[in-house]
Amino acid sequence: MLSRDFELHALEKVLASAAFGVGASLLLEGAVGAGKSHLARSTLRAARSRGFEVIFARARQSERTLPYSLLRQVHDQLPDAVGAARARGGAGGAEEAAEAAPVQAQLLVAELTARAPVLMVVDDLHWTDPYSLHWLGQLMNSLEGQPVALVSTLAWDHSEVKEADQRLPGTAPLAQVASEFHRREVLQGLNVDSVGYLLASTFGSPASTEFARACHDATGGNPLLVRALLREMRRTGVGPAELSAGRVAEIGTAEIAEMMVARFEEWLPGAGRVLDIIAIMSRVESPQVVADLLGIPCATAADVLHTLVRCGVLDETPDHIGFCRPMIRASFLTAMPPSERSRLHAQAAKTLHDLAAPRHEIVAHLLRAKPVAGTWSCRLLLDAADAALAEGDTASARACLERCLDECGPGEEPGLLRRLGRIELAEDPAAAVAVFRRALDLAREPGERRSAALVDLVQAIGLTGDAAEALRVVEHETAAGEPASAEPARRAGTDAVRGLLALLDGRRAPVPPTTALTEAAAAPWIRRARAALSAVQAQGAAERREESVRFARLGLGEPVESVDAHAGVRLLLALTLSHAGEYEEAAQACGAILEQATAEGSGSMAALARAVFAECAVRMGRLREAEEAARAAGEFAPGREWLGSALARCALGGVLLESGDLDGARRLLLEDRTPLPEALVPALLFHRGRLRFATGRAEAGLADLEECGRRLRARDWSNPAAYPWRSEAALIHAHLGDHAVAERLVEEELVLARGWGAPHPIGRALRVQGLLTRGERRAAVLGEAVDLLREAGAALDEARASRDLGRELLRTRKARQARECLRAAMALAEKCGARALVRELGQDLAEAGARPRRDTEIGLESLTPAERRTALLAAEGLTNKEIANRRYVTRRTVEMHLSRVYRKLSISNRRDLSLVTGGAAAPPPSARVRSDTGGDRMPCSS
Fold first, then answer.
1. Is 68 helix (H, G, I), strand (E, B) or coil?
2. Which of 389, 2, 402 lies closest to 222 in space, CA to CA?
3. Which has the closest alpha carbon to 449: 424, 482, 423?
4. For residues 202 and 183, is the Cβ–Cβ distance under 8 A?
5. Is the pLDDT of residue 935 over 50?
6. N or C of the chain: less Cβ packing under 10 Å?
7. End-to-end CA gap in the chain
8. Is 754 within 8 Å of 913 (Cβ atoms)?
9. From CA 756, how far away is CA 807, in angstroms rounded?
């Protein structure tokens, strides 16, 4: 037997004592299902094998009130050899026979022990009638010197019931008889190893320790519960291989609940209803809750709970009362019909509300109950939804709002559906579309509510990538018309949304609104939409950069009630700032939206913010951050393609192309045939054209770039800030020998870039123009490109321009200056993570006669011994002349060393130098390389 070594040893001692003529008694106590009867039956088998005469009697609950009912079972088992003694007591009436029964039994046992030792087993002592108990008490008093062993079993807490009975002559209380046993053993549950053994025996293979422990925790090791659990697992066809350890506590069987109700209901009326309530409530803080739910006196409820706790079914702590084992609760829930569960949950919610219980306890029942038809329930569910959203728990918020739809009135449905739709939007834009459509259908009257529902719907449709469908919905709404009393601001807001969708769908947008954007009467979404349209259209014209930035900032400054409210428009504005060269501001806007989305649990908005940030980061040359953000954005998968995944795919393809991972870029940009939203097709064509040129397919690459330009021109988009397709096409034309077309394209882009005014597109166009320029002007043009790209903070394009300038200086035999430029380009390329560019620069430096490069060109570790000594002296406050005198070198050498130190440490003056060298363990500042204003000369000056 499993986990019963101690009890078996006690039983062995009882039998041994009886065999030696010394009577002994043992009482086995335990909870329901602890295995008491099983132990008693095993004792019978052991006694028979040793030649004992055995007598087994089992008390029954139905015979509690029958005098000598147990004793009659003993009589019936006595052998025929003592029939004469039995016959002697048979004369007389029934009453005389009953009174003589104890004496006869005593005599019969005495005669029986003359033949062999006797084992008497009495199972379920707690159901024994008082007269038989009295006889057992007398038997135990006479065991001394008799070869008799008495073994009995007792379930916990039945003594109180027996003690309440009226005591008659010839009877004895259960507590008194139990106390007269020589030894009492309390049976504990099986240990984890024993539960694991039973699992292995049942399913034919060992279970993990974690799973065995979960089964032990659910049942407490109670053999009855353990075997019922294993039967249920076999019945449902799930075992340790299919079931996680965390779900074991959810398994219950109706047989356990029915057995317990049948066991308690007769002598403890109301126990079944109380257990049902505890199963529904999970736990109760006081008997008053049970009393209110069942409509019984509090004292009665307290008595029933107290008894069930003493019986080991419930567990009581200073704070609450609940089931002692999860499986018992699961069994009562399993046995309960769904309609009854719903009714009890509704009743529990009402009772807890009347008792002013905590909100989360009431809501937990409302979510499982039928509608309770009360305004208080709707208010509680809304508050719970808001609290869940504040904690980022969208699943709980969704459940509360869906349940609230069953409680609220018709007028409240559109607002609830909008809130529910935003929660769906956080996880799956396509699922949100259906919810927002329903909200729009219910908001039948024209007005602010219908306009807000329309904007929510078109945003959700737009995020699925179907801008054409979103535009169709807006145009249908506009065609339906509004009454003359409709607010002009609302109509202007709808027109602005329509204009943005037209641009995203590859069409021309209407003329932006000319009225003021900040009128107090307009809703924030109206001002934001109008600002976004104005910002995007100003950007497309490539002439009004300041206007575009101003409108983008106005739109981003509008208040929002949640991250899902028009986050797509806000991220479009952040992208507009990025195209205008305001990279840090754009990155901060993306970071703020990402932080808010993470806090609110909006996976879709977080993914979209990461994808837009990746676009901003790659423009700054922060390829590692861009790649990390794009990959994280791509990991959000609602089960279908959507705008965020498409944007992440394009962004990651561009990042891999910039970093030199052509195979990875090919998989994303060429081999992945998933259709893209129209708004992202130019991005795909731009990156794909450059990739094909980089892999030797110049004509195919040129075709992609020209198609990119055609699509942008169809939208009236001439700005080269987003997609400089002209300069990239110019490089391919030059490669193919068509220099005239190449020069025309790059000159056209340069004019547009200067009209836009951002330094990055100007510097990028100048770099290509420098590559196409012949003669002495080439170095000057490239030098100007380097300065502009440094000013823009475009580290990667600055590295490319510095490399081109270094190559030109090397061609004109200015080796020292060439090495300086190439080293500066190497430092920037390493900082950006442009692996392919780093490899190319290594070859260029070798051709320029540079010594074998160090493992890194940035950071303190990159400094040579001479540069380190110079840096430490400068950090101490010495002037260049003092450093030159101390080191016995020229001032020019000191300036050259300091220029290299500034470049490698990404600093610009001696104050920063003292901070870096004074704490070598601290990381270098992340500021970009910029012109020195303090007099020390920077590299790459042509």
1. coil
2. 2
3. 482
4. no
5. no
6. N
7. 92
8. no
9. 30
Residue 741, both tokens:
């077309």
**Residue for token digits 């979209």?**
608
Q: Identify the burial level of 342 via C-beta atoms within 10 angstroms of its C-beta, where 0-12 means exposed, 13-18 middle and 19 or more buried.
A: middle
Phi-psi region of 795 (alpha: psi -120 to 50; beta: other; left: phi over 0): alpha
Strands 148-155 and 321-323: unpaired
Which of 620, 616, 607 lies closest to 646, judged by CA? 607
Angle in degrees, 0-180, between the axes of helices 524-540 and 545-556, rounded to the nearest 10: 160
Distances (CA, A) of 837 to 483, 604, 935: 62, 34, 30
- Would you put residue 395 in left (φ > 0), alpha (ψ -120 to 50) or beta? alpha
Tokens of 802: 């510095």
In this predicted structure, the answer to whether residue 606 has a pLDDT above a threshold of 60 is yes
Q: Quick one: which of 695, 686, 622 has its CA closest to 653?
A: 686
- Predicted confidence (pLDDT) per residue in 184-238, tens digit: 999 988 999 999 999 999 998 899 999 999 999 999 999 999 999 999 999 988 8
Pairing verdict, β 24-30 and 183-186: parallel
Question: Which runs of consecutive H residues, i.e. helices, occur in 26-93?
Answer: 36-49, 69-76, 83-88
The pLDDT-based confidence of 482 (bands split at 50, 70, 90) is low
149 DSSP assignment: E
Return the number of other C-beta atoms located less than 10 Å from residue 137's C-beta: 17
Contact criterion met (CB below 8 Å) for 121 and 151: yes
Measured between alpha carbons, how far is 510 from 211 in angstroms, rounded to an integer?
Answer: 65
CA distance 69 to 103: 15
- As a whole number of Å, the CA-based R_g of the chain is 43
3-state secondary structure of 452: helix
HSE-CB at 135 with a 13 A cutoff on CA atoms is 25
Alpha-carbon distances of 540 from 229, 251, 316, rounded to whole Å: 69, 62, 71
Residues with Cβ within 8 Å of residue 490, at least 6 apart in sequence? 448, 451, 482, 523, 526
Contact 593, 570 (CB under 8 A): yes
Return the C-alpha torsion angle 433, 436, 441, 447, nearest 10.
-130
- The tokens for 282 are 């999970």
Question: For 104, phi and psi rounded to 5 degrees?
Answer: -60, -45
Give SS3 for 118: strand
For 556, phi then psi, to 5°, come to -70, -25
d(CA 452, CA 886) in angstroms, rounded, equals 74
β-strand partners of 284: 321
Which residue's entry shows tokens 């329901």?
32
Q: 865-875 and 910-918 helices cross at what angle (nearest 10)? A: 110
Can you give the length of the chain in residues? 942
Report pLDDT digits (tens) over 353-390: 888 889 999 999 999 988 876 788 888 999 999 898 88
Rounded to whole angstroms, the Cα distance separating 394 from 867 reads 56
| CA pair distance 563, 251, nearest whole angstrom | 40
Q: Are 59 and 128 in contact (CB under 8 A)?
A: yes
Q: Do the beta carbons of residue 301 and residue 287 sit within 8 Å? A: yes
**Number of neighbours of residue 393 by Cβ within 10 angstroms:** 16
pLDDT exceeds 80 at position 84: no
Q: How far is Cα 739 from Cα 772, in angstroms, rounded to an integer? A: 8
Asked if residues 917 and 871 have their Cβ atoms less than 8 Å apart, the reply is yes
User: If phi over 0 gives left and psi between -120 and 50 gives alpha, with beta otherwise, what is residue 323?
Assistant: beta
